[in-house]
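**Protein record**
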Amino acid sequence: MATSTETERYIQFLLEHLAGRNEHHVFEQIVFQIALRRLSSNIVPATGPVSAGGDQGRDAESYYTSLPHELPGAAGFIGRATTEPLVLAASVQKPPLDGKIREDLKSICSRGEPVARVAFFAAHEIPVAMRHRLQEHARDAYQVALDVFDGQAVAQMLTQGDLIWIAQRFLDLPSAMIPDEPAQEQPDWYRATLTAVRERAGKRLTPGALSEVRDGLRHAVLDDEARVDLPEWLGYIGEFIEGEDEDLVLRARYERAWAVLRGKNTLDGVERDIRAVIDAALSTERVSLLDDANLLLLAWGGSWLRHLGTVSAEELRDLALRLRERTDTLIGTTDAAVYPVRKASLLDVAARLCLQPRWPEVTRPAAGALPTAREATRLRLAGEILPEISVESRPLDVTDAMDYLEQLVDLLPHARAFPVGGMSETFQLVAPALTADPRYEKIRDALDAAQADIAGDSSVAARCRDRATAFLRAGRPLDALHELHEVKINWWHGDTLRGALLTMRMIAKIYGDLNLQQAARQYALAAAAVAASSGAEHEDMLPAALAEAMNYTYAAGHWGDALALAGLAFMTHHLYAEAPDDYPSHAYIQQLDFHVSMVMLSAERFRPALSPALTQLTDTSYLSDLDELLTELRPSFNHTEKQFIQSTDEQLNGRPFSDVGAQRELNFAALGTTWRIRYDNTRTTVLTAERLTAALQIALTELAPHDPLFLPQDIHLRVIAGTPFASKERVTFKPNNRAVDCTVILSPYSAPAAPDTLERELSAAVVYLLAHLSARPPQAFMSLVKKAFARGLTHKLLSVRPYDEVAGLLTEAHYGTLRQTTMHPWTDTAFQPPTAPALTQPTTPGPGYDRARALDMIRDNYAELPQALSQTLPRLLADPAALAGLWELREEGWLDWHILMALVNIALNLRLQQLSPDSIPPDYPARFLQTPESDYTASLPLDAFTPANLRAQMDLTVLSIGQRRWKLSTAMKTPNPAAFKQLLNARYSYGTDDVPHRDLLNDTPHEKGSLLPPAT
């Protein structure tokens, strides 16, 4: 084969010999084909050959359109295509050509339509100096731009991969002269197909020919270099549309519509193709045509979102409903026992039609806000998911779609040949919008199982990954976590182990984004441990995984540990990373350097006594490498200590150096609970406490979707590594009505117990502790726990290897250095860890809440309680001090029924004190409410009804309200009334639910003692 240089010289030789053979028209054809692909596609030949003088000097000229608009983003010369009027002129005349070009310029510019640019092509060489003089002459004499392409330039262009066919066709270039490596490489099949289509003597309108044209057209749409051929392929596909075979016509219309939309970002001229396909589908018996119509309709809707085409949202919706109607008709007439695959295919089409947005309800974004159809297609092919509108905000007919999908998955065992992949892909994309339907898990699992039967467990992992990506894009990290944990399990074997490790690092990142740094650290360190032990194939992942673990440790405020992990990451980077000295190509190194710099500079500026200890914790060569960066950053690190702590409190999950001293502290917040975990700073205890903290964080994310109904309060947790004394429980609580005060004793990993024994111990401790934080009845909470374990909580807590094993990278000496170092506290105020949006306490109505029932009970309070205070209430309202106290409570937000309940409960207790213990009947509270106060001889002391006493009474009453009205509960022997009240306010409308009634502090009760209006 010839080289490109040899081919160029040979083509130039052939060009120079055209004049001798009087082949002016051949050169014109060559120039025209070059111009179509290098200057603009909107040119047409002028009439009259050069030799006849009938073209007014113009061999071709442009009409109004241009490649930049036709092919947005195309590569190569198209990016320079002009939108100005363009004229081509060509000549095979031998030099000198100065006069010829001046004469053609005069002819071109003095007749016909005005022109802005002239491109002159010559078969022979033109000196550079002459070219410049001619360009200056064109500007001065005619105010036009002149481009001159001589024989050498033309030969050079014809050597390029997408143009060399022109030399083959018009110059009879031998195959041996085609270079081995054309300038713009295309796949062999593509070049062969394009050549075959070009060389056909006539039209071949057969199904096979359509397949060839279709493949070439699709390639030209998506390939940057092949896009110059798009106009040519559109011409070829257009030949089929002009044919008589109706099936080929519809298939060609389908392809042309997609190609113009993706390739040119327009629907100009092809909306009639879309309508033709859909119109045919409305009366078809063919499932494939209905499927084509569904896809085109969805693309049409996407075009409407992008302000392309003339279709309206209402027409889109109407067509979708009509297609659904047609599909329903065919479903009804298809016997699943005889035609299971056809039935399944129709159900598939029907479901996907239901998952098309109800376009009239969609808010269309501004023009240009969305990626083009071509960009979106390429991103999807690369594994990205780019929905045109937020998945969860799409107005979809979800219930109808799930009806069809449920029928489909029930039919799958009998329709083995049904290709489930298309529906699987759609299901992944819209999964966030479907999860609220109770059939979601059944359908998801059935589709996964069907895919696994075809392609194995790794394909299920890929589906889970796609769903996870969709959930992340929809802002639902908890659902994404569940899917990624399934990926981890299904990819956990040799061929896909690398994907499993990447998934573990993604799981870690999501935990980190949820401000659960210990869970994140566990998964990053587990990925590092497996990468280190799996041989050379995956060891390149080790430094990045260690660096990520360092980032999570830094965010937790354990800056001593972070410094040590940074040294390990730096060391493994130089051992295993590709091009380790090319730091800019490794983003994790830059992040590592920044965090370590913050550690060293903050100690240097605010706690200089720490600096000697810190230098013992990490690799000295790494710190030496950072000297230059520290010198550069030091002048800008000029915060005050107050500013520094304010900044870190906003950005981190723990105070800096909270791993320094005799005890460590970990902090995090989730679902209304704020955790403050303390433990001794010894290696065994640290690993034990971190194991428990990671497990708690993972368990909280698993329970969160099921609404565990935790009381909003602080949990002060002390962790001890060892064995409980005298068979004492491993989880114990101290009395505390303001927070949870708890101690957990866990066996250290070095104990002789088997790993599975430690896992059971850890799970039991986590469940027991969390059960004491929930306001759900014990049986209801344990039901949620069973669901979490059924969804894989056990393997999620483990993360491949025991925590102490994967996290035991640091020596006892490291912990000893930190334990023996003292540091003055940053501030007296407690650190408030941030809560991620996905883990905030829910504000939706709590389990069991029924507003109608709540209002009925409040109405009963106003009707019945005043009777029990018929004597005391008037006295309280007449007493200035007592009335002032009641007004004080009202100003604090107490409703009248709150005040009534507190007053009645104090009165009940006072009356009980007036009775002897032996005379109190079991049903005394009910009797008390039914007994008019006038039946009692002694009056109640008004000084018993102070605001302080009423508040104390209401602390007890609020627990009773939660238990009696909403079946709430607490396993704590000393519950937190303030937390209970906060929960009732947030989830059970305790502070807002009320009914019309007489004003307790201003009106008198009804004659029957009721505060309700007389008509009630």
In short: The chain is about 55% helix and 5% strand. The first strand starts at residue 43 and ends at 45. The first helix runs from residue 4 to 16. The two ends are 102 Å apart (CA to CA).
